[in-house]
Structures are given as C-alpha cells and as structure tokens.
Amino acid sequence: MPELKRLHADHAPAVLAFELANRAYFAASIPDRGDDFFDRFPDRHSAALAEQEAGVCVFYLLVAEDGSVLGRFNLYDLEDGTARLGYRVAEHVAGRGVATATVRELCRTAAVHGLRTLRAAASHDNAASRKVLTGAGFVPVGPAAPADLGGKSGTWYRRDLQP
C-alpha cells in the first residue's frame, strides 16, 4: 500500500527517478522544469529540505512499497494558516484516483502544520487537475493569472480544512 511521507534527504534518488521518468508526461500539461532542474537536482533537493526545515513549505511523497515515488504533494508558502497546494503523479498511476485520494489525505494531515485553508491553481486546459481538486473538496474561487500557472490562464480553488 502506498504511503504518504514527508520529504527527506534519502528520497533524492527516488524523486529524481520519478521526475525523469515522467518528464514528457508532465510537460504535456504543465510547463517543463527545464534541463537546469535536472542538472542541479542535488542542490534543488537540498534547498527544498532547507525550506521545509524553515517552515516555509512542506513536501510530501507518495511512496510505493518498493520505495519508488508515485507522486509529489507539496504545500507552499505556509503563512497565517494558509498554504498553496501543488501535486503531480506518475503517468502509470494517473486516472486511477491516486491524486484525489492523496490530496484528501493531505487535507486531513494539514492541521499538523497549523493550516486552516489550502489553495491551488489549475489551468483551463488541465482537466485532470481540475477533477482532482473538485473531487478532493476544493471549490473554484476566481481566475488564476498566467503568472500563477506558467503562462496559462486558469482558476484558483480553495478548501477550508476541518479544525
């Protein structure tokens, strides 16, 4: 059974393998991370861990029993009980409810970080992400600017968490 785990230093090889294996799949619906992301991955992973340690962000992985990463679920910009949610799942598990179930689990877990509200943006052409958000209890709250979505327009979603 896959398990939601907080990111730690030992996850670096599995996260890099996940990103590389799914790069083309992700680039079909969201902006590509670019070669620099992969070339400087050890530094980026360390920076993410430092942000997590500082309490600015919290990064989670959905990890399969064999240790491979099935998805990334990130809480960014933690401030005043609110955070921004971002996620991506591996192509071979997409469309099976994995992202929706994991976002729901993360919403239940978010209280440990003092969060009361989560926000997420999805582009108009990313139907899968919009379906995940609405399936996990998020509601549309307004337009998302291209600057929020890598050059694409879309919608902001919000979910108020249970105390």
Quick rundown:
This protein has 163 residues and is an alpha+beta fold. The chain has six helices and seven strands. The model has no long low-confidence stretch (mean pLDDT 94).
Describe the structure.
With about 160 residues, the chain is α+β, with helices and mostly antiparallel strands. The chain has 6 helices and 7 strands; from the N terminus they run βααααβββαβαββ. The protein has helices spanning about 10-20, 25, 35-40, 40-55, 100-110, 125-135, and strands at about 5, 60-65, 70-80, 80-90, 115-125, 140-145, 155-160. The chain has a 7-stranded mixed sheet, with helices on both faces. The longest helix is centred in the N-terminal third of the chain and has 14 residues, at about 40-55. The protein is globular, with a radius of gyration of 15 Å.
CA radius of gyration: 15 Å
- The end-to-end distance, rounded to whole angstroms, is 28 Å
The main pleated sheet reads as:
7 strands, mixed
Number of strands: 7
- Average pLDDT value? 94
Q: What is the string of SSEs from the N terminus onward?
A: EHHHHEEEHEHEE
Task: Output the number of helix runs.
Answer: 6
Strand order of the largest sheet: 1-2-3-4-5-7-6
Q: Which strand-content bin applies to the residues?
A: 25-35%
Low-confidence region ranges: none
Secondary-structure content class = alpha+beta
Helix content: 25-40%
Shape: globular
